[in-house]
Amino acid sequence: KCAYILPLLLILMFSMPLNAQVTIRINQGLNFGSLYPVGSGGTVTISDDGDRLPPTGSVVLFPSTYHESSFTLSTTKRGNYYIAWLEIESPITMKRTGGGSLRLNLNTNGYNSGWWIARQTPVTLHMGGTLYVGSVSANPPGSYTGSFSITLHYF
Question: Is 136 strand, coil or helix?
Fold first, then answer.
């Protein structure tokens, strides 16, 4: 049998106005590691803490690097800012050059709680997600990538 891996890297995409009071720095993208769908596939989940949970359905996980996404909210301006909530695009479609796509639901729970940030006190957030993996014919071997947007609501 020939196994292959599906390394996944999620890229955070955002745009900030030139006079933005709050910025987002990407620390690391979401990575599900190496896996192989068997039969009709299943799901793989990375928790907000970076744990890779046992898969559902028919997905084999290989020892590999995996981790949650992480980003930092900060400001260089004077004063305090209250981040009231984040809008995070989800679900998104991960694509492979040459064909194939996977659906990803990001874990957006807990991102409406609110945070205070100031010049010397940035806030780092961690986010996991669940990847829906289909059959090998629907999801050929290779690297799948995607992006999502984050909108900050602050005052």
Answer: coil
Angle at 151 between CA 146 and CA 152, to 5 degrees: 140
Query: Do the Cβ atoms of 104 and 10 come closer than 8 Å?
Result: yes
pLDDT band at 110 (very low <50, low <70, confident <90, very high): low
Is 18's pLDDT higher than 70? Answer: no
Token pair in block for residue 111: 């991102």
Confidence of residue 11 (pLDDT cuts 50, 70, 90): very low
Rounded to an integer, what distance in angstroms lies between the CA atom of residue 96 and that of residue 78?
44
Give CA separation, 127 vs 39, 56, 60, 98, in Å.
29, 20, 23, 29
Give yes or no for residue 5 having a pLDDT over 60: no
Question: Which among 86, 73, 87 has a CA at the least distance from the CA of 26?
Answer: 73
List residues bridging with 125 in a β-sheet: 71
pTM of the model as a whole: 0.80
Q: List Cβ neighbours of 100 (8 Å cut-off, separation of 6 or more).
A: 138, 139, 140, 142, 144
Helix (H, G, I), strand (E, B) or coil at 124: strand
